Amino acid sequence: MAKKPEKESKSDLEQKVWSAISAFEQILEAMPNDRASLDALVHAYEQVGDITKAQEYIVRLGNAIIEENDAEAGHEIIEKLRMYAKDDVKSRQLLGRMEVFLSDRKVAAAAPKTEVQPKPAKAGAVELRANFNISDELSFAWNLLEANELTQEEYASVVQDLTEMSAGESNATISVLHVLEVRGFKNLEKIIGFISKQCATPVISLASFDLQAPAVSALPLDFMLRRGAIVFESLGNDCLVVVMNPYNKQLRQEIEAALGRKCHFFISLATEFDQALAKVPQIISGKPA
Questions:
Q1: Tens of pLDDT along 131-153?
Q2: Domain parsing of the chain, residue ranges
Q3: What is the CATH class of 134-285?
Q4: Are strands 229-235 and 263-266 parallel, antiparallel or unpaired?
Q5: Which residues contact 254 (CB under 8 A, 6 or more apart)?
Q6: Which of 70-74, 106-110, 138-142 shows the lowest mean pLDDT across its residues?
Q7: Which residues of 77-109 are buried (b: 16+ CB within 10 A; e: fewer)?
Q8: pTM here?
Q9: CATH architecture group of domain 3-110
């Protein structure tokens, strides 16, 4: 008897994903090159196991990225594109275009510039990409849905909010935790405890720390805002970092590689993250908050 509800739940989950797919495809009818919707559909079709449709949408997404001359976004999808290119002609053709596009942009970036851009403190050789990727947050929400930490209705609302926020021009951090807090999610404390345990990422209160310039200046401000991460303290040569999406392993790897230092990761309330981030410009400039 224990297996029957599980099967019904899985069926309900798939139905909810199909509802989300329908919503995103309606958006594309009005805005055929809406990258947030294209990205979301790649992820959604992967979830239901329709790789052919996922390939179709990643090709559309890749073409939109090239048309909009966004090299950072190209770097975000190229590994997945290589995976699909093994079995799909259109993906393979796009991969060739994308590699040429990224190569050309790399050459252009290497050309001498009259203005020297500041570098993050003690940054390594890896370049940090500041662009927001909605699929990371959709994956976060899906994990919570599968674990029954979100109901189907709550999941649908979170997906809708993430999509609307990413499609707008909001100069704010976009994350599942932000959406849940704004919506006044009644089980927020419980869900943060679940995330902390599942991701082995302790919860801390950023409000308890006296932020200092050497720590908070380790990452570029735009990266902190778009990717939801902030170095809030140093421990010897190690960095203590809050991330708003602890499921995003690639984000952790990028931060450690860029800083060239071992990092210990934590999560916090979205409001505390926003409050800490708002103080960063004043802290770095040395002006009183």
A1: 788 878 888 988 898 888 988 88
A2: 3-110, 134-285
A3: alpha beta
A4: unpaired
A5: 126, 128, 129
A6: 106-110
A7: bbebbeebbeebebbeebbeebeebbeebeeee
A8: 0.65
A9: Alpha Horseshoe (1.25)
